[in-house]
Write a structure and sequence with these properties.
It contains one helix and eight strands, in the order βββββαβββ.
Length: about 110
């Protein structure tokens, strides 16, 4: 996880190698939806950001505490060399991570 100076947490940031097409996909946590409620009981405001040569787009998402637990499970699956899916509740776009062992890289489909 990458913490920025404005309090945004880059939960996921996948990008092409420098000097290539410059495509990237990020999931950023922008902050708590309802500060004041006990931590872990409120919702998190977030966004999925997609950047290409010609388009930069963001899609707002609301993350639940369970979504972060599911992300931990997805990371464990990826660590074992298997593909994983995250955000499958149908209230947000889902993300599929395909392991490509030969190239030691990851493909993402949203």
């Amino acid at each position: 996880m990458d913490h920025s100076t404005d309090g945004v947490i880059n939960l996921i940031h996948l990008a092409d190698s420098p000097g290539t097409s410059g495509h990237s996909v990020s999931v950023r946590v922008l902050g708590r939806s309802q500060p004041g409620i006990l931590t872990g009981h409120d919702l998190l405001d977030g966004e999925i950001a997609i950047t290409t040569e010609s388009v930069t787009s963001t899609f707002p998402v609301t993350l639940l505490p369970g979504d972060l637990e599911d992300w931990e499970d997805a990371l464990a699956t990826l660590k074992s060399g298997r593909s994983a899916t995250w955000l499958t509740s149908r209230r947000t776009p889902s993300m599929k991570f395909k392991a490509e062992r030969e190239r030691r890289s990851w493909g993402v489909r949203t």
